[in-house]
Amino acid sequence: MAAGRRWRALVTPGIMLGVLGYAIANFAGVALAQFLG
């Protein structure tokens, strides 16, 4: 979306936040699976 709107300064932070979100969700999912399973 940032690239489409030509907000070049926000492309890298957007990608970094997306990767961070995946990392946190992955950790939370593994922890939940260990807790429940």
Structural write-up:
With 37 residues, the chain is an all-alpha fold. It has one domain. The protein contains one helix and no strands. The termini are far apart. The model has no long low-confidence stretch (mean pLDDT 96).
Number of helices, counting only DSSP H or I runs of 4 residues or more:
1
Portion of residues in beta strands equals: under 5%
How much is the average pLDDT?
Answer: 96
Which spans of ≥5 residues are poorly predicted at pLDDT below 50? none
Number of domains: 1
* Helical percentage: over 70%
N-C termini distance? 38 Å
Using the alpha-carbon principal axes, give the shape.
rod-shaped
- Derived from helix and strand composition plus strand pairing, the structural class reads mainly alpha
Query: Which H/E pattern describes the elements?
Result: H
Largest sheet: none
* Count of β-strands: 0
Radius of gyration: 15 Å
Task: Give the arrangement of secondary structure elements.
Layout: H1 11-36
Search tags:
37 residues, single chain, 1 helix, 70% helix, rod-shaped
In short:
The chain is mainly alpha-helical and 37 residues long.
